[in-house]
Amino acid sequence: MSTCGILLAAGAGSRMGKPKALVTGTDGQPWLRHGVATLQSAGLSPVIVVLGAQAEDAVELLPTTDVIVVKSDWERGMSASLRCGLEAAMHIEGAEAAAISLVDVPDLNTDTVTRIAGQDIPSRNILRRAVFHGRPGHPVLIGRDHWPTLAESLTGDGGANTYLREHGVELVECSDLSSGVDVDYPEA
């Protein structure tokens, strides 16, 4: 029994000026590589990376071990990418939960992921979400029992917010560990 990671990195990044999967941080590390490394260092295995816009370029930035790359119908919005990641997770034998994050959260760190994904044995029914000063953010931990229903419910660019609220997600404050800010513009 394990928890896998899902890193959503499919969008075109229109406000950023290029796909966020191709953005390099001020530290010189690509956000994509940082996101995967952070999920892996928290013990998540494997990490599913959902790509879309300029996927061929993004693949070159990924480590070659313990990563499953899937391409989504990203033009249809975040729901298509999340659905794609969940469907890939459904094929991972022994995965009881998935910790989901976004590529554009450059200060995501291992401590934040560990607080949400926990060191305990994952529950197939868990719903847990990081919040930062009460503001919902990532990562989000979703137990396997929720994957099919959640995947069916997804539409447009809304992600899992409605599903999580309706199903009693546990909110876990993480502002002492990181900002949780997702970056949409190059000047940020």
Topology (elements, then pairings):
Blueprint lengths: L1 E8 L21 H11 L5 E5 L3 H5 L7 E5 L6 H12 L5 E8 L7 H8 L9 E6 L2 E9 L3 H7 L7 H6 L3 E4 L15
Parallel strand pairs: 1-2, 1-4, 2-3, 5-7
Antiparallel strand pairs: 4-6, 5-6
Helix pairs in contact: 3-5
Report mean pLDDT, rounded to a whole number. 92
At the fourth CATH level, what is the homologous superfamily?
Answer: Spore Coat Polysaccharide Biosynthesis Protein SpsA, Chain A
The number of domains: 1
Q: Helices and strands, in N-to-C order?
A: EHEHEHEHEEHHE
Q: What's the total helix number?
A: 6
* Order of strands in the sheet with most strands: 3-2-1-4-6-5-7
Radius of gyration from the alpha-carbon trace, in angstroms: 15 Å
- What is the CATH domain class? Alpha Beta
Shape: globular
Number of strands: 7
Low-confidence stretches: none
Amino-to-carboxy terminus distance? 39 Å
Name the helicity range: 25-40%
Strand content: 15-25%
Structural class: alpha/beta
Q: What's the CATH topology label?
A: Spore Coat Polysaccharide Biosynthesis Protein SpsA, Chain A
Largest beta-sheet characterization: 7 strands, mixed
Known CATH architecture? Alpha-Beta Complex
What do these coordinates show?
- This protein is an alpha/beta fold and 188 residues long.
- The protein has a single domain (2-173), classed as Alpha-Beta Complex (Spore Coat Polysaccharide Biosynthesis Protein SpsA, Chain A), CATH 3.90.550.10.
- Helix content is 26%, strand content 24%.
- The protein contains six helices and seven strands.
- The chain has a seven-stranded mixed beta sheet with strand order 3-2-1-4-6-5-7, sandwiched between helices.
- Helix 3 runs antiparallel to helix 5.
- The longest helix has 12 residues, at 78-89.
